[in-house]
Amino acid sequence: MKKIFLLLIIAFSLPFTDEIKAEETPDLRIRIFSTVNISSVTVNSSFGTYFLDGSLKIKKQDKITLAVSEGKVSVSVNDSLMFKRDSVKISSQDIKCFLQITPANAKARRYDNNLTVKLTKDKKFLLLINEVTEDNYLAGVVQSEAGGASDNVEFFKVQAVCCRSYMNRFINKHVKDGGYNLCDDVNCQVYLSRANKTQCIEGAAQTAGEVIVDENGKIIETLFHSNSGGQTVNSEDVWGNKIPYLRSVKDSFSVNQPNYKWEKEIKEKDWLNYFRNNGVDVKDYNNKRELLNFSQAEGRKSKIFGIPLTQIRRDFKLKSTFFSTEPWGSNVKLKGYGYGHGVGMSQEGAVNMCENGYEYWEVIEFYYQGVKIKNLLKETTSKE
Ligand SMILES: [Zn+2]
Q1: Ligand 1: distance of its center to the CA of 179 in Å?
Q2: For 294-320, what is each residue's pLDDT tens digit?
Q3: 30 CA to middle of ligand 1, Å?
């Protein structure tokens, strides 16, 4: 009994006793090219030394081709067939190495660290898994999701902490789908390449281990959008469930940023018909006047005549739910603010805050109410 107890203590304390190793081992498994059906792929070393199958050294000019072949993965080096396996690993000598991966039917991308290639469950296509360190993965995600939004390191620290929070919250999302943690598409986090933008790499490195937790210490869901239009939205006005940290806040930082304003004209007839079809008596003078002069100047509303603005946004393909209306000849003109669902962090507002000297944790605490930043490597709360 004592022995088992001791073993348990060792097992649970291992990841924390050697922090640097835990951080730098490429032990995160991300499915890449997850939206592409790949039958054949070519892999080259872009930087550093790689090994095929743990032993065969790959030279920089070597071309490794992996393909689906009779229910296995076939491996050729410089066009001569080496072997067929269920799973093939291309591993790097150290964590600075990166590969170029070129599927026959998609554009080449570069990824850090290791690559494992297996078959999809139906054995029709290749399943590409990038084994990568947490820092390398997060820098790649930050650059893929927001690399073009700014050159400000502080902003990429905000992004890195948000992306790390998502990663930790959903770390087992795809384990049942073939032994990987997350995939590279928008339903997880976009991860279209390794990072080569210095600010993205620094943003991830300078916030190593940091995630956002709510008042109960649970990692939050870091929802964001492009621009709030000057006021963010309560979560329940978009998805029906009230989440304490996703409260509506007045957001002057989004004002006059690139996606702050929009306009759209809709035929008055189409606008009124839409509401008639949703049960509103549009022949009634007051109702009609309200529909043509709807205003959110005093703040965001969630409905018109009981019809959710989120539904209207979807049906008319509007940039946001934050709009007012006015008669405009035979049309109705919608004057709108912001871009996106409006819940959580405004990306353009966050960029603006960082460029005006706010620190990353101030941005996070502004858009997510009552949260704290916690460092999982230190297992203590770093910022109150
Ligand atoms: Zn996914």
Answers
A1: 12
A2: 999 999 999 999 999 999 999 999 999
A3: 9
Which pTM was predicted?
A: 0.86
* Diameter over CA atoms, the chain: 84
Q: Separation of 332 CA from ligand 1 center, angstroms?
A: 40
Distance of CA 288 from the midpoint of ligand 1 (Å): 45
CA atoms within 13 A on the CB side of 193: 16
CA 248 – CA 227 distance, rounded (Å)? 13
Q: Which runs of E-coded beta strand occur in 203-330?
A: 210-213, 224-225, 261-267, 303-304, 307-308, 323-328
- Calculate how far, in angstroms, residue 190's C-alpha sits from the geometric centre of ligand 1: 9
What's the gap in Å between 180 CA and the centre of ligand 1?
10
**Among the listed residues 125, 126, 145, 226, the one whose alpha carbon sits nearest the alpha carbon of residue 193:** 145
Q: What is the dihedral of CA 25, 27, 33, 37, to 10 degrees?
A: 140
- pLDDT tens for each residue of 187-239: 999 999 999 999 999 999 999 999 999 999 999 999 999 999 999 999 999 98
Report which DSSP code applies to 120. Answer: -
Distance 26 CA to ligand 1 centre (A): 19
List, in sequence order, every residue forming a beta bridge with 317; answer none if it has no partner. Answer: none
**Distance of CA 108 from the midpoint of ligand 1 (Å):** 20
Cα 170 to ligand 1 centre (Å):
9
Residues paired with 88 in a beta bridge = 117
